[in-house]
Backbone:
């Protein structure tokens, strides 16, 4: 059985974010097929996701995160006989053993707004070196696969797609648990959900599109989820960071999900909305057509004007909302399973072990 050491830092986050959630879902399926070792940051709590071998590595002093991977992990790997999986866009540059790297998107190459120059340079150099040195590259959509092949000039057979699945917690039935959340957030009428966080997701566009809605659209509230706070204005609520229990319930009760993102490697929130029976308003950018197919109110561009028109079209047409709800549920039901994604990753480990 192949022994695989996983960069497990994202499993130490509280609450888990997108990449950590993906790895947590994959882990039990991977452990059925390979011998898993979780390599973690000693400064953080253990993942506590099951009975897995864990190697906790320190970073001297207060050195920044890259030193954990490029220093501590590289040092530990000198005695490791197996495959190292860099689950967060990078492997140790000094490591000369077998490796697989997961690259979720190429934001640092094409959409680096919001990244400091130093942060961008650090991620860019690590990702480029890791993609070219690793025996296999795993990504999450065909859109990103083609981008990686084209940008890093890699042979197509070295880049594989293991798309994320959608957690069963995202379903229309989660609306039954919505009342306490609405009470806490003081939401007292129909609402639209938007995301704050990375700048490319366009919270400012969502807010302005909501503001421009005509009275005919029913005067919904706007509930913003994520670390980025929206402007303080009547009708806008900042829900902040939510765990999956609250996020799934809030989604299930929304009239629409306003998603004016400019770039996505996959677009997991859009698939979660579809699985919740909530229509998505977005533009045909990056991976979103691949993920949603017909299950979206497509806009020409992710600009204020086009998103406003798309959101208004949806809010004014109950038949359209119902049709998109049905299409979204069908799309989510067709999504690959976590077991299928794990099989792709195991095949990458086997390829790297040759």
Residues:
């Amino acid at each position: 059985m192949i022994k695989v050491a996983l960069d497990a830092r994202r499993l130490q986050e509280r609450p888990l974010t997108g990449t950590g959630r993906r790895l947590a879902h994959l882990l039990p399926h991977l452990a059925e097929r390979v011998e898993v070792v979780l390599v973690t940051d000693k400064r953080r709590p253990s993942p506590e996701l099951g009975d897995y071998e864990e190697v906790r590595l320190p970073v001297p002093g207060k050195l920044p995160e890259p030193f954990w991977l490029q220093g501590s992990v590289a040092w530990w790997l000198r005695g490791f006989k197996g495959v190292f999986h860099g689950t967060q866009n990078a492997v140790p540059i000094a490591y000369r053993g077998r490796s697989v790297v997961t690259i979720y998107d190429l934001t640092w190459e094409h959409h680096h707004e919001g990244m400091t120059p130093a942060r961008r340079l650090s991620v860019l150099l690590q990702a480029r070196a890791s993609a070219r040195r690793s025996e296999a590259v795993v990504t999450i959509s065909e859109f990103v696969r083609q981008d990686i092949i084209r940008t890093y000039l890699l042979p197509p057979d070295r880049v594989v797609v293991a798309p994320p699945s959608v957690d069963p917690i995202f379903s229309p039935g989660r609306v039954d648990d919505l009342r306490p959340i609405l009470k806490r957030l003081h939401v007292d009428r129909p609402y639209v959900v938007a995301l704050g966080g990375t700048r490319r997701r366009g919270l400012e566009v969502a807010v302005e599109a909501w503001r421009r809605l005509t009275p005919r659209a029913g005067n919904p509230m706007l509930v913003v989820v994520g670390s980025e706070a929206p402007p303080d204005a009547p009708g806008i609520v900042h829900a902040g960071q939510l765990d999956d229990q609250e996020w799934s319930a809030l989604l299930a009760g929304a009239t629409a999900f306003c998603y004016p993102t400019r770039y996505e490697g996959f677009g997991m929130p859009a698939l979660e909305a579809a699985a919740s029976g909530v229509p998505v308003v977005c533009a045909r950018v990056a991976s979103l057509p691949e993920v949603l197919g017909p299950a979206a109110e497509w806009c020409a561009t992710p600009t204020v004007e086009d998103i406003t028109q798309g959101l208004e079209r949806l809010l004014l047409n109950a038949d359209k909302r119902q049709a998109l709800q049905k299409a979204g549920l069908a799309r989510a039901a067709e999504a690959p399973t976590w077991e299928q994604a794990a099989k792709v990753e195991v095949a990458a480990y086997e390829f790297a072990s040759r």
Summary: The two ends are 13 Å apart (CA to CA).
